[in-house]
Amino acid sequence: MKGRHGLIAACAIIYFFLMLPLLVVFPISLSSAPYMQFPPPGFSWQWYERYLDDPQWIDATWRSLYVGVATAVLALALGVPLAFSLVRGKFFGRGILDRIAMAPVIVPTIIVSVAVYGLFAKLKLIGMWYGLVVAHTVLALPFVVLVMVAGLRDFDRGLEQAAEGLGASRLRTLMRVTLPLLRPSLVSAGLLAFITSFDEVVVALFLSGANMTLPKKMFDNILMEIDPTIAAVSVMQIVLVTIVLVLIGRFGRGLSATAR
Amino acid sequence: MSSTSKGFLPAIPALVLLGVFFLYPVIRMLGFSIETGNLDWYAKALGEGLYLQVFWNTFQIAVFVTFFCLLLGYPLGFLIATTTPFWATMGFIFVLLPLWTSVLVRTYAWMVLLGRNGVFNRMLIDAGIVADPLPLLHNLTGVLIGMVHVLLPYMVLPVYGAVKRLDPSIVAAAQGLGASSWRIFWRIYLPLTLNGIFAGSVIVFVLSLGFYITPALLGGGRVMMIAVLIEQQVRETLNWQFAAALSAVLLGFTLAVYALAQRAMRPEAAR
Q1: Is residue B24 part of a domain?
Q2: Is the bond preceding A39 in cis, omega lying within 30 degrees of 0?
Q3: Cβ contact A196:A71 at 8 Å
Q4: Tens digit of pLDDT for each residue in A90-132?
Q5: Which domain holds residue A208?
Q6: Which residues contact residue B44 at a Cβ distance below 8 angstroms, ignoring those fewer than 6 apart?
Q7: Nearest alpha-carbon partner for B197 in B15, B75, B57
């Protein structure tokens, strides 16, 4: 096919556009120049050292990590039962419940952020890590529900019936049959929730106050000065995301299932 | 348990969270806009030229972003859907990797690439193509490039799905009857993947409307979008009532686009 070569050439350019920003931060993060310069005049680890030596950066990184983990745990704890209700329940208003569960991705994040900021300012929750966890869970919940609903739809209920037929209690069936079989979906949903929180900026901008998360610290840095420290931080973030993607590919429900 | 509430119990904890920390705060905030007992704040948002201009800007940017995402996203989704499994996986990875990389990392990278002393301008000047740096950052160009980059994956995935669902025997039949590649594309692929094009366009358009980070950083204060205006009203002017009215208009428009899209999609799905 003649047209095929043209298509591949066009896609190569589009992929270049997609990957260019990810690639450009690598050489800059290893630059020996005191400010942003491209191509870098020489090699140095100074920006990584500066990141590791700055308690503010380290502090922000830790906060982002535990807020992300707590968000993943809470989003799974609430989202998995919700997905069970949506797939297996038969009750009045299930369609409405489905819409409410998906609403946080439809309502613009700026509106959610401002609204929760208003409430949390009144409750004196600004700067509290658990306030951020709750807000991030709202944003992560739709993704958990999407992945789990897809997993449950493909689930063979005959296996549960077999377990119950052999005398297992409902709880035992859930713990020994249902959840282990759903593990790939659970892994994908949990990692997706973690990344949603770990990368989230707009809510963190409003809610984190003086206790900055990593994205909030990066936002402030970008606004104030373009210092290659942020390139070093970016490289580490890209590496972390790649690891998470590999984990999903290896232990989760296929990449394309997650993307949908 | 009665038959009308079977399986509702497990949904309650999540529903409480969404009610207390999502629905209640949003409704409470939107309520500020009518605290005065009239619609004056809406009149200001939709009546004063300055603010109307911001809505118009936002709408235009969303249209441009959707157009460029479609232009770049269709070939990608098409290629991934029609290639071998190995290349499809590779193709997916390089669409998902940028999608999952922090928006801030990507925005920073674009600042490095597009700035006055950035990579592009350095190369253009060194190659003697231009004498002075091109203004690529802190203007509409920068915002569009940044937004298209962030939203492109959201177009690729629905297009991929639509092409994948297409019955390959239709294409084989057309080829057998001697149709050219272009003809097959125009007469078979394009009309039969309109669903995916439409779904992707709606997602990209709606996400563009509420965009904050990219215009705030790459626009350099010169490209005003509605989300940036809302943030300023809350944090700088402390005008909650006006911010609430702006939010209500943005939310209303977003929901209207969704509702219209769903109506438009339904007859397609029924066929």
Answers
A1: no
A2: yes
A3: yes
A4: 888 888 999 999 999 999 999 999 999 999 999 999 999 999 9
A5: 56-259
A6: B51, B242, B245
A7: B75
* Model ipTM value: 0.89
CB atoms within 10 A of CB A152: 18
A85 touches B at CB < 8 Å: yes
Its pTM stands at 0.89
Q: Which of A133, A157, A164 is nearest to A66 (CA)?
A: A133
Chain B positions touching A35 (Cβ under 8 A) are none
Task: Indicate the residue of B21, B100, B111 with minimum beta-carbon distance to A138.
Answer: B21
Answer whether A226 touches B (CB < 8 Å).
yes
Distance CA A102, CA A91 (A): 18
Domain assignment of residue B61, yes or no: yes
CA trace torsion A187, B15, B211, B203 (10° rounding): 70
Q: Which of B105, B164, B211 to mutate to test the interface with A (most CBs of A within 10 A)?
A: B105
* Within-domain flag for B29: no
Report yes or no on A239 lying in a domain.
yes
Residues 132-161 of A with CB under 8 A from B: 134-135, 137-138, 141
Contact B75 A10 (CB under 8 A): yes
In A, minimum Cα distance to B217 occurs at A223
pLDDT digits (tens, 9 = 90+) for A44-100: 888 899 899 999 999 999 999 999 999 999 999 999 999 999 999 888 888 899 999
Residue of B nearest to A26 (CA): B109
